[in-house]
Amino acid sequence: MNEAIKPCPFCGAGAKWATGRVGCKSCDIYARDERAWNRRAEPQWISVDERLPDDETPVLIMLRGEIAIGELRWEHPSHEETYQACRYWDNPHDDGQDWQWPDVTHWMPLPVAPTEPS
Ligand SMILES: [Zn+2]
């Protein structure tokens, strides 16, 4: 196994071997071996059939097979006799672009934006 040992997933410091375990040089975390240490959680696409994101929160979406940014919105008709809320996807930066509900199959939370160097 010559896989390079990754930096600490929590603080970014280098890793070290310590009594048969791999650990962080800076914070107090260890893994039983380098394979366990190197394992990282991959962001997962979530099926819209399984779970939906919070309303009006931009997320990554699979839109007709391509990655885009969208958010879930609800339409609340004003006439009570025909009241039926309906949900739809929209572009957070461009209202009314008319995506159909089945156009979006999966979503995942947006990654955290980089911090600007000051
Ligand atoms: Zn660390």
Outline of this structure?
The chain is mostly beta strands and about 120 residues long. It contains 1 helix and 8 strands; from the N terminus they run βββαβββββ.
Structural features, described:
The protein folds into 2 domains: 40 residues, no CATH class; 64 residues, no CATH class. The protein has a 5-stranded antiparallel sheet with strand order 4-8-5-6-7, with no helix packed on it. It starts with 14 loop residues before the first strand and ends in a 9-residue tail after the last strand. It is 4% helix and 32% strand. The chain has 1 helix and 8 strands. The model has no long low-confidence stretch (mean pLDDT 86). The chain is mainly beta and 118 residues long. Strand 5 and strand 6 form a beta hairpin. Zinc ion (ZN) binds next to loops.
